[in-house]
């Protein structure tokens, strides 16, 4: 079986856009409103001659109470099924309570984590990504899922983690 990468993070950080970037197709559903992604959808991906499976997550009700707990709960299931995790944060927003809840799950899992600082569309935004070292999850990889900026270095880090 091919190794599995779970893509987790709170709604609207760009998980599905990043999944499309990784798989090189537009199959994951991207929405301006959070909560559209179906639960744990799997896609085949390749990078540098290696195959792996990418699992997108999402699909909660954005109006539900306890959003952070729901995100964390879903992340927990996805992470338990994965060989490595791509944790996506919106570098232009920074760390929220929901992000912190996911970080606790990731730490407890002991699985290798690659930290994607998404929405770094230009050089100017790159400084925001370095604040994410504070999460204690290792090096933040600045990427723009929308434009592809930085995605090669992030994919190299993913292969190293899988
Ligand atoms: P998800 O809820 O985490 O799956 O997020 P989506 O992939 O559905 O994206 C949510 C919104 O963020 C959409 O409007 C995307 O176009 C936008 N978005 C995603 N990645 C980027 C990025 O790298 N830069 C910018 N500026 N917007 C992005
Ligand atoms: Mg999504």
Plain-language structure description:
With 162 residues, the protein is an alpha/beta fold. It has a single domain, classed as 3-Layer(aba) Sandwich (Rossmann fold). The chain is 32% helix and 22% strand. It has a six-stranded mixed β-sheet, with helices on both faces. The chain is globular and about 35 Å long. The two termini are 13 Å apart. The model has no long low-confidence stretch (mean pLDDT 88). Bound molecules: guanosine-5'-diphosphate (GDP) and magnesium ion. The site of guanosine-5'-diphosphate has 20 residues, from α1.
Main CATH class: Alpha Beta
The coarse silhouette is globular
Could you tell me which ligands this complex binds, including any ions or cofactors?
guanosine-5'-diphosphate, magnesium ion
CATH homologous superfamily identity: P-loop containing nucleotide triphosphate hydrolases
Distance between the termini: 13 Å
Helix content: 25-40%
Mean pLDDT: 88
Largest sheet: 6 strands, mixed
Domains (count): 1
Radius of gyration: 14 Å
List the total number of helices: 5
Q: Beta-sheet strand percentage?
A: 15-25%
**What is the CATH fold-level name?**
Rossmann fold
- Tally the beta strands: 6
């Amino acid at each position: 079986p091919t190794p599995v990468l779970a893509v987790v993070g709170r709604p609207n950080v760009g998980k599905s856009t990043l999944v499309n970037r990784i798989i090189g197709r537009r199959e994951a559903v991207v929405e301006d409103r959070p909560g559209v992604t179906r639960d744990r959808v799997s896609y085949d991906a390749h990078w540098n001659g290696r195959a792996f499976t990418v699992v997108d997550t999402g699909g909660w009700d954005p109006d539900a109470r306890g959003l952070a707990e729901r995100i964390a709960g879903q992340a927990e299931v996805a992470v338990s099924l994965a060989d490595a995790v791509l944790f996506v944060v919106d570098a232009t927003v920074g760390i929220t309570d929901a992000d912190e809840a996911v970080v606790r799950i990731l730490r407890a899992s002991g699985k290798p984590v690659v930290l994607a600082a998404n929405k770094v569309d230009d050089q100017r935004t790159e400084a925001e990504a370095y604040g994410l070292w504070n999460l204690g999850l290792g090096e933040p990889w600045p990427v723009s899922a929308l434009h592809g900026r930085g995605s090669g270095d992030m994919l190299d880090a993913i292969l190293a983690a899988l």
